[in-house]
Amino acid sequence: MVMATVKVEDQAEDGGADADARGLRESALDPLPVSVHASLKEEEGQPSSSSGKLRSQFIGMGFSSKLVDKVLQRHGDDDSNTILESLLSYSDLQQSGSESSDSFGSFFDNDNEENNSPSESRKGIYQDIKPELDSFSEKWSFLLRTMNFSQQEVDLAFKQLGDEAPLEQLVDFIVSAQSGVPSGGLQTGDATNEGKTELLYGVMEKTLSLLQMGFTEEEVSSAIDNFDQRATVQELADSILARRIANSIEQKEIKVESDFLDEAETDYSSYQPSYSDVSYYDDDNNNTRVKRAKHIFIDDIGASSSHLGDPWSMGQRAGTNDMSVKVELEAMTPGRRANVQGDLAKPPFFLYGNVVEVPKDTWHQLKQFLYNVEPEFVNSQSFSALTRREGYIHNLPVEKRSVVVPKSPMTIEEALPFTRQWWPSWDTRKHISVITTEAAGIEQTCERLGGMVRESRGVLSQARQMQIIHQCRVSNLIWVGRDRLGPLEPRQVEKILGYPYNHTNLFELNQPDRLAAMKYAFQTDTLSYLLSVLKGKYQDGIRVLSIYSGIGGAEVALHRLGIPLKCVISVEESEVNRKILRRWWLKTEQTGVLRQHAGIWKLKTHVIEDLVKEFGGFDLIIGGNYTSCKGGTTVNTTMGMDSNRFYEYNRVVKRVRTAVGLS
């Protein structure tokens, strides 16, 4: 009989999160709140300044500016519902091919824009912006920086042309300077420069559109930085809104890190019998109070999101090497590895993964605490039906990586083939982008959106299509019947993330709890690719120290690769997550030792040294975003992650390496 100590957890789930999330979700379908960062020029016949907010809202929803102006001129700005109905009615008539309408035909007698050239259209956009005299250069400077011009180039252009130079002249000057030709050379017919200029103007037009939709300069700059410059305005807006909603929901579900700094924690131990090779430790036999690590990072207020680069290319593959992996022939794109050499390249290997998008300055700080190893970035859509930018800091080899087989589905259609017959052609989604946990009001939302489709009788306006697609993205809705939407179920999310069927299906867990457990879980195909280099090194078994195990993503990934788990020392505060991992361990009939610790705060130096002596060291120290199914998560909202727990992971890595004679 094995005796074990367990940690008594008393964590209350934040019951208000779902209600707040519901409000956020429903507000996404209503006109967006707008804070226009450039004053609109009032032209003859255009709505007055009192209606400027409504005008920007409806333009942000996808209606043309001329249509909005005409409807506002007729109805005024007293009744937004009447205005919206008029706009939608005209869009529906236009979609169905109707060219004559008593209500709207007279609006557009002189509105034929087909003959306008791109340059004339751009002029119209520029003229809509009337910067104040004291901020003229700042606004143009911001727009030029979003076009990826350096600050030095922007300053030089202003110095040569003056602070009140037209934007087009500023762009021409910088492009000419970059190409080594005199200003004005673009007018000689240089196709390369002309194409580059058109692309830059496109970026500027998207920036102006997003600003008029009410997004901040920081949000716009981050979105353009993280996407290809050819991304559409709708794609950029969806990205910003999804991040807003995800951040808002997370902040409702979590406790802010500062609330926990210097807070003491009491653990209570008790002994229970165990079965198989699973044992439970609480690190110390005595009740002790432990001070938590101080917050050690500089705040990143105002920092833009990191540019995570292109997804790894998935090229031609050879046949199977054995029954568990395929050899990847085409080279992937690892981070810079120049400093991973000597003792640093020796085991124990470490890997820290972050599946939450954080500012680039945060990554710079993180790597300084892990031997200054450059992070490696990936988009999980290269391996699955989930699109998510992820970052990893590790000292693993990068040669001869392989993809685990069988692979997880690569698209929603592959993962959920039953949806194919119901999926409308205008819904172009291929991947899910976020794992949501709110359940309140989801049925009403699905019915509301389905009603919009049914009422259109097969002629759905583009504006409403955009609304529905956006809501489906942020709420993980799929087509489950004719004109009928439903939320993704936990078993379907498990399949997309690469976990076994019903991996999170504990008796005491409802659907939102199961989804919450998977919110920040590793996508196991993506992680398996990184870990595949260990297969040839540890055919007889691997010793793993798993920090913040979550629902066992690292363990599942190693098992899928066919690497035997000789021992796993798992640190995970959530009792629910510990049960999920323990049940998986037993169901898969692992022959190694699983030892579960309830908290990292008491994984002191002498405990680490004892574990190293007991098991002869560790081969892999793996950690990731700290998460908890039943509350208790702490996140530094300026960093987008839990910096205290990253520091604890870093401490454990260095203690283990020191214990085996490595610095």
From TrEMBL:
Residues 19-28 have a biased composition (Basic and acidic residues). InterPro entries: C5-Methyltransferase (IPR050390), SAM-dependent_MTases_sf (IPR029063), SAM_MeTfrase_DRM (IPR030380). Keywords: DNA-binding, Methyltransferase, Nucleus, Repeat, S-adenosyl-L-methionine, Transferase. Gene3D superfamilies: Vaccinia Virus protein VP39. It is found in: Nucleus. One of its GO terms (biological process) is methylation. Residues 335-663 form the SAM-dependent MTase DRM-type domain. GO terms for cellular component: nucleus. Residues 1-55, 94-126 are annotated as: Disordered. Signal peptide: none annotated. PANTHER family: DNA CYTOSINE-5- -METHYLTRANSFERASE 3-RELATED, INACTIVE DNA (CYTOSINE-5)-METHYLTRANSFERASE DRM3-RELATED. This is SAM-dependent MTase DRM-type domain-containing protein.
